[in-house]
Request: fold
Amino acid sequence: GTDPNVIQKINQMSAVEAFGRPNVMTTRTKLVPRSGGVTLDRVAKGGSFVDDANPNDSVLLTADKLGGMVRVDEEDIEDSLANIIDTKTIDAATTYAKLFDNSCIGATAAKGTTGWAYDSLYYTLTQADTTTSYTASSNITQSATAGGVTYNDLSGALGKLEQGDWFDPNDIVVICHPSFAQALREIKDSNLRPIFNESSNGTAGGGQGSYPTLFGHQLHWSLGSKTTASPTQAPTGNPLLVFAQRSLLHRGDRSPLEVSFQSSEEGLGFATDQNLLRFRARKSVAFGAPG
Reply:
């Protein structure tokens, strides 16, 4: 089954779950339309309509399986006052959120190298896309020094999106590793006053609502938003901050994080006196227009 507390924890932790455009998948693969735009022009009286030159192509969602299994001794359940199974289930939800976000955002190698079924956003942005005329790495902004992100770094990164053909201010979301929180607090003007004043909920970046914002756009902290050679639940590379159009962040939903329980009174558990907890999800991601 699917524990509602697990779903809530995933939404709290996973930016791709929270922001991604959901696409229900009934098979392992699914084509979804890529937003390529439409060409319109003035049509003179009796004249011909202009032919649209933009591609009518799609991006492919391919579901991959994320999961694991936990063995819980029968005596641990009988002797402990704490609910070990619920605790492990919430822990699995936290791990899933970090692993899924990292696989969607931070993996630097291609899927053919990592063995995963889909490429990450970081890798996608490092590759040229002739269909959309995107130049490799043109939408990646790197700070001059580690941890030394500046106001101009942030503004320039957002500016790349604002100058693109798909700009929609009401659709922009920000995915950010928590290490940027300190960096945002420490960006100061010439009088050493913080540029990003903390909001009423204590978040650098402003915003008086129930969620943090950066430059007025909704922000979601993601522990998986770091670079790594291959997807992992504990990435150790450079922290990433992503400005994106939510409508172009396609999340494939084949099955949510499911929790299965097998008692020690049956199956393999009978021979070891261990209960088995299995966690499984089948998910995917694809990006409509890297530019």
